[in-house]
Amino acid sequence: MKFFAPIIVIGVAIGMYFFYMDTAFPEVQVLREKKSKYDEVLQKAVELGVLRDSLLKEYSNVSVDNSERLNKLIPEKFDAVLFANDINTMIVNNDLSVKDFKTNPQRTEDRSLITGEEQNIPYVTNVVTFRVIGDYDKFIKFLKEIESSLRLIDVVKLSIKNIGGTKTTDNFLEFMLEVNTYSLR
Prior knowledge:
Elements: H1 4-61, H2 64-73, H3 80-93, E1 97-104, H4 112-115, E2 124-134, H5 136-148, E3 153-162, E4 173-183
Antiparallel strand pairs: 1-2, 2-4, 3-4
Helix pairs in contact: 3-5
């Protein structure tokens, strides 16, 4: 009996070990996989932190003047009054007059309805419609000034109508413009 007792205890211990390991081993494997995924996520977080720090350093190196120019190109939020003032200044500088200045600041180009695909567009398209009255050559100068302005403006529609003038030598035209300008929200 003294001889069999240790063998029985060792046999029971070995049996319990394999019985326990059979049930616990798959769970240990799942936990190891989770740990490796967490380690990967943690490594990505460290990499993103380093990238964020480098981008913040680059952003702080941008001069105030260049930052203002970027904000003028695509402003954070569309300001219809400021935009109208900028356009009016260009119009007055070219000896033209403006009428019927209308904005639709919340319209976005929603192509997802047409294509059926979800798109995440990081900007808002602001539609502005206005009429300009004046001479054709001055209007062309005005369009070139829009083209070379710092603000991003796309002329979408242009219609021209002859309205004449007070004298027989006057050749006033009415130009109806629809332009798109952009903002981040």
